[in-house]
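Deliverable D2.4 — example input (structure tokens):
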């Protein structure tokens, strides 16, 4: 698919998370999830009608945001909150609510932390001479995350908290890593 053929929704993310997504997505800020992925399910659940004050995202994207492709969908879905059945049609329901933006950003951050913890577990268990400091900086270099957007202390603290919860170093796999 070409970028101009995609219908996308913008999601505000932390600068470090945006850098990580650009690194794993070959420099593109557009994520194209599979239809069976948890990410697509989260997005579909939070699509809403376009509000009156909506300003479209430019083709080049926005700083501080990533974009997620949405698929053409026309399905009847039951809403527990509204206690009614409604049509979810991305032709009309193609705006991500604030709650949806938070849910997508949280899911992507969870993916980032999973990658970080897996990297640290593998790097430190396979190289006894590697320090935690060097492993964290190697991770940031590998994923092109600048230390202007994330600090060594933040990552170190996350690593130590993870190790305290999981002394065996086991990282629970994500069911469907494909966004």
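Example output (designed residues):
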């Amino acid at each position: 698919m070409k970028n101009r053929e995609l219908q996308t929704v913008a999601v505000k993310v932390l600068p470090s998370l945006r850098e990580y997504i650009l690194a794993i997505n070959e420099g593109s800020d557009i994520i194209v999830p599979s239809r069976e992925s948890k990410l697509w399910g989260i997005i579909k659940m939070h699509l809403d009608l376009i509000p009156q004050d909506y300003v479209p995202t430019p083709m080049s994207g926005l700083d501080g945001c990533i974009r997620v492709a949405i698929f053409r969908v026309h399905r009847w879905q039951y809403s527990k909150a509204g206690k009614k059945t409604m049509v979810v049609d991305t032709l009309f329901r193609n705006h991500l609510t604030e709650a949806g933006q938070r849910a997508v950003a949280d899911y992507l951050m969870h993916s980032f932390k999973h990658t970080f913890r897996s990297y640290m577990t593998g790097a430190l268990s396979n190289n006894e001479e590697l320090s935690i400091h060097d492993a964290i900086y190697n991770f940031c270099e590998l994923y092109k995350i600048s230390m202007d957007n994330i600090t060594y202390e933040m990552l170190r603290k996350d690593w130590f908290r993870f190790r305290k919860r999981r002394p065996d170093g086991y990282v629970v796999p994500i069911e469907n890593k494909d966004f």
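The helical segments are 15-24, 38-46, 98-126, 132-142, 152-165.
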